[in-house]
Design a protein that fits this description.
Number of domains: 3
Helix content: 10-25%
Strand content: 25-35%
Radius of gyration: 22 Å
Largest sheet: 6 strands, antiparallel
Number of helices: 10
Distance between the termini: 43 Å
CATH superfamily of the largest domain: 2-enoyl-CoA Hydratase, Chain A, domain 1
Length: about 425
């Protein structure tokens, strides 16, 4: 039976499953040793994994760790996301929206890391790193060599600090030292009102990562939009790799307003052995009503998962105008299973919107193409993607009626703390 929830968090439950066809560890799960972990993972994949019928029959005790076993069990090449992490890391990133690192997102070039976003108040911002600059060496080693050896993530993960050789946007050279620290990667990075030359007021929201810590900042941003009586809204999720469904549902409720409250946002649809878990997220009445008939979303290939669910979940209720490039194509999500100090995160459900749309593995295509413009700051009216959005808002036509392909590298769940 389907459950209808306004603001329920299914993925944060601590799951302990007995029976239901699962193969439990022979020691009853009391041991945290590798054999027990492997047995538990194998049970989850055979029972709770979205593609459970594709899981091969293997001797799970033959693998040296559950992480190695998972590589054998996933439905390749479709599943690029199932993972295992620690409970501390999961809670930090997805609940509090924090990680320990430098605080930047980059694009991989041939011989440099080009900075896409620097998190506000992060160690990188404090050290003076800025969007559009290029890192050409780390601790004296050229990025060209680092890339050729496929060790960018390893190098960025090492130590508590690093020196970075930087080429500024003006071509100047400098070296900076950045000490790792707590990076707040949650939610609203920028929320403001921009007035167009026509006089039209536009709310701009740069939103990064759907976490449980984002609610207050979202509410404050939309309270500003309501007070300013905005006439258009732009939600910039070009680097938003996803997060919790609950926070995506909350943002959708803020955008859609009271007229859509009580309607379906998305359904989480599980495999045939777990249909009792199928859950409907219902758009909440947030008390904010900006009364708009459409919303603009800015996307790239780094727009994933709950960000894509935001687009598809809103589409039956609000005219969603997508600007940029195709999204990453992750129409599925994790369910959390705790075992000792680890969190097993198999892909367990697919998103389905009110119109029955699902399985957008090829990504969601924009109406208007636009390229990420690193010469300008995010939120600047002259920045290419935002300028293209404003063009359409004023004229109803696309500046570039094509789908451009981005190469942005945004941190996934496994390497998020690396930088």
């Amino acid at each position: 039976m389907k459950r209808r929830l306004l603001l329920a968090v299914v993925i944060f439950f601590n799951i302990v499953i007995y029976g239901c066809g699962l193969l439990l560890p022979t020691d009853g799960g009391n041991s945290c040793g590798v054999p027990s972990q492997n047995a538990y993972l194998y049970s989850l994949m055979k029972h709770s994994y979205l593609w459970n019928t594709q899981v091969p029959d293997v001797d799970y005790l033959a693998w040296p760790s559950p992480e190695e076993l998972l590589k054998e069990l996933i439905y390749s090449p479709v599943d690029k996301w199932s993972t295992i992490t620690s409970a501390a890391t999961y809670d930090s990133r997805f609940i509090r929206g924090e990680y320990t690192g430098y605080g930047f997102i980059y694009e991989l070039q041939t011989d440099a890391l080009e900075i896409k976003l620097v998190y506000k108040s992060s160690p990188a911002e404090v050290a003076g790193l800025a969007r559009g600059e290029k890192i050409t060496a780390i601790n004296g080693e050229s990025v060209l060599d680092i890339i050729s050896q496929d060790k960018v993530s390893d190098v960025l993960s090492q130590g508590d600090a690093a020196s970075f050789e930087i080429i500024g946007k003006d071509g100047s050279l400098r070296t900076i030292l950045i000490n790792k620290g707590t990076v707040n990667a949650s939610g609203v990075q920028l929320g403001k009102v921009i007035q167009l030359s026509s006089g039209k007021k536009v709310g701009y929201l740069l939103f990064q990562n759907f976490t449980e810590a984002a609610y207050d900042d979202l509410l404050n941003a939309f309270a500003l939009f309501e007070t300013e009586q905005i006439e258009e809204l732009v939600v910039d999720i070009r680097y938003n790799g996803g997060g919790t469904v609950r926070s995506a549902n909350y943002l959708a409720g803020l955008i859609a307003g009271s007229s859509a409250a009580g309607k379906l946002f998305v359904q989480l649809s599980y495999n045939e052995l777990n249909t009792e878990l199928n859950t409907e997220y219902i758009l909440p009445d947030t008390g904010i009503n900006i009364s708009l008939n459409r919303v603009f979303v800015i996307t790239t290939s780094s727009t994933c998962s709950s960000s894509e669910a935001l687009i598809k979940g809103l589409s039956p209720h609000v005219n969603v105008v997508q600007i940029g490039s195709s999204t990453c194509g992750k129409p599925v999500g994790f369910r959390r299973y705790n075992y000792c100090e680890k969190v097993f995160l198999p892909v367990a459900f697919r998103f389905v919107n009110e119109d029955g749309e699902k399985d957008w593995f090829d990504g969601i295509q924009p109406l208007c193409g636009a390229d990420d413009d690193l010469a300008n700051e995010l939120g600047d009216s002259n920045e290419g993607m935002l300028a293209a959005t404003f063009d359409y808002a004023e004229s109803g036509t696309c500046r570039t009626p094509k789908i451009s392909k981005g190469r942005a590298h945004t941190p996934n769940f496994n390497n998020y703390s690396s930088f």
